[in-house]
Amino acid sequence: MKLFSEMRTSTQAISLFAVVCAAVIAITQVSTEEKIADNEREFRAKALYEIVPREQIDNQLLEDTFEIQLFELGHQAPVTAYRARKDGVVKTVIIPVTAPDGYSGNIHMIVGINADASVAGVRVLAHKETPGLGDKVETKKSDWILSFNGKSKVDGQYWGVQKDGGRFDQFTGATITPRAVVNAVGRALDYFTANRIALLEVKPVENPNQEVTN
């Protein structure tokens, strides 16, 4: 009986320990997930407001969002895009773009496009490019990504890297990465042009000469 009692006590202790451990793990996981989510939100907000500074708009970018399907821009599932407004009018749309042809894999970025189809800015969010070469797409490594600012496809210059006869510099010893980014931004501009009315929430203009019938 004494042995049975000791075994039962040990079993209860082990069960209690397991419950406590499970609770600690669950609490840690939840708090960690919340921390990661907060960090990701802060990182994304920083990138968004680098493209469109807060003082230039009067809405909250992280709140003025819409879901969109962008197969042609490298996304198989719907993604979140953003609208920047001034006095209620959409001035810039920021859409996520993936370049699938980076040197070491996908390059994930966001591309801001102004209502006049010019680039407001581009920021790379994640990549696996070679340190010291392809990582120059990051603003902390180089200002190369800023060369997109204000550019458009309607000014007569070829949209490509200089090695391909285009306007954008490539990196010394690395052409694949900048080419992938340039081409991806170009596809984003094409998408915007094809879907401008919906993206900018432009209302159709009524024909003043149209007859009204009852």
Description:
By secondary structure, the chain is an alpha+beta fold. It folds into two domains: 1-51; 54-199, no CATH class. It contains three helices and five strands; from the N terminus they run αβββββαα. The protein has helices spanning 2-51, 176-194, 196-199; strands at residues 65-68, 79-86, 89-102, 105-114, 119-126. A five-stranded antiparallel sheet has the order 1-2-3-4-5. The longest helix is centred in the first third of the chain and has 50 residues, at 2-51. The protein is globular. The chain starts with a helix and ends in a 15-residue tail after the last helix.
Outline? globular
Helix % is 25-40%
Tally of DSSP helical segments: 3
Tally of discrete structural domains:
2
Strands of the largest sheet, in order across it?
Answer: 1-2-3-4-5
Order of helices and strands: HEEEEEHH
Oligomer: single chain
Portion in strands: 15-25%
User: In terms of per-residue confidence, which ranges show pLDDT below 50 for 5 or more consecutive residues?
Assistant: 210-214
